[in-house]
Structure formats: structure tokens, C-alpha cells
Amino acid sequence: MADKKSPQSEKATKKVAVKQIAAKAPKSPKPVAKSAPAKKAATKKVVAKEQVMIAPALKKKTAAAKPVKLLSGGNPQMAKADGDAPVQVYIAAMPGWKGDIGRRLDTLIERTVPNVCKKVRWNTPFYGIEGNGWFLAFHCVTKYIKVAFFRGTSLQPAPPEESKQKQVRYLHIYEDGPFDESQFVDWVQQASQLPGERM
User: Which domains does the chain have, with CATH numbers?
Assistant: First the structure.
């Protein structure tokens, strides 16, 4: 008469049998690496997607990087725009020594009038005070830079060059001529406190 196995010994036997079967079963294969052409295709898809996303930004950057055309007298041709950025583009496009003077004028105006507003109109940078109008502009002429003070006749002393417009006076800055920075700063300070030109 065969011995009856206890339920516990039967469980142990089953566990051993399962382990033996599992050991003999073929292992699942490792994931196969993608072939070179498949990898290349996947990379192309990612790159194409990134290019689609980047394209508009590149287009804008390229448009902004177009060279500025110089008009007669070397004056940069600029579309009308508000803010410091277009003024800096204008100044960067001023040819030769005029660019150095343009940067200097811009720096002196900013330093004298920290809250100054800027814009470009008619191929010319304008400087003003928000709510009070525009007090100064400059542009390139063949042999000099013409700085316009819109209330120039009210400045003491008045800038030297007359205008056909009653209140406007000009300062002409030549390459080899003197440029009195302290007098310019004083005019800017005075002009910024007067009612400006509305446009």
C-alpha cells in the first residue's frame, strides 16, 4: 500500500517541477538593435520635425540680418519702427566715422535722459519723452551728421545752424571738426524739458 503524501510535500514537489521546467524553457531573445538604415530613418524624422519647429525662428532671424541699404549721403534706409532696437540697427548701419559719432550721440542722450523714448521715422532716429513729444533727431548727410533740435530757438545758447522751420535749429558734426560734448549734453538736457514735437 503506497504511502499517502502530505499536502505540504506535494506542494514542494510541484515547486521543484515548475523550477525545472522554467530552467529548461528557452529564454526570450534580447531586443534586436535597429539596423543602420532604420536608425538613419528615425533620426531623419526627428531632424525634420525639429526643422519644422525652428524654421519660423530662422526666417525671422534671417530677415532681421538683411543688410541695410544706404541712401544718398550714406543715410541708412529704415522702415518706421518704435523702440531702441531699430535705432541700434540704424546706428550700426551708419558708414565709417559716422557710426562712431552715432553711437556716441546715442550714449550721451541715454545718459542725460534715462527715460528717453526712441523710434525711427523717415530714415531718422528720434528721441523724446513719453507724453511730452520728441525733442531731437539726427541723420547722415554726405559730409556731416545733422542733429535737429525741434525747439532749438528756445535753447541757450541756440545751436548754430538755422532751419526753414521757425523753431528748429541744427548742429552739424563733421569728421574732422570739433564736437563739444558738454555743450551737446547741455542742449539735450534743456531740450528734453521743453514741450516736444508731436507726430
Answer: 72-192 (3.90.1150.200)
The residues, any chain, with a CB within 8 Å of residue 68's CB and separated by 6 or more, are 76, 77, 78, 89, 90, 92, 93
Cα separation, 190 vs 156, whole angstroms:
8
Q: Is the pTM value of this prediction over 0.85?
A: no
Query: Using one digit for the tens of pLDDT, what is the confidence trace for 79-89?
Result: 999 999 999 99
For the record, the C-alpha cell of 148 comes out as: 535737429
Please provide the distance, in angstroms rounded to a whole number, between the alpha carbons at the two ends of the chain.
Answer: 119
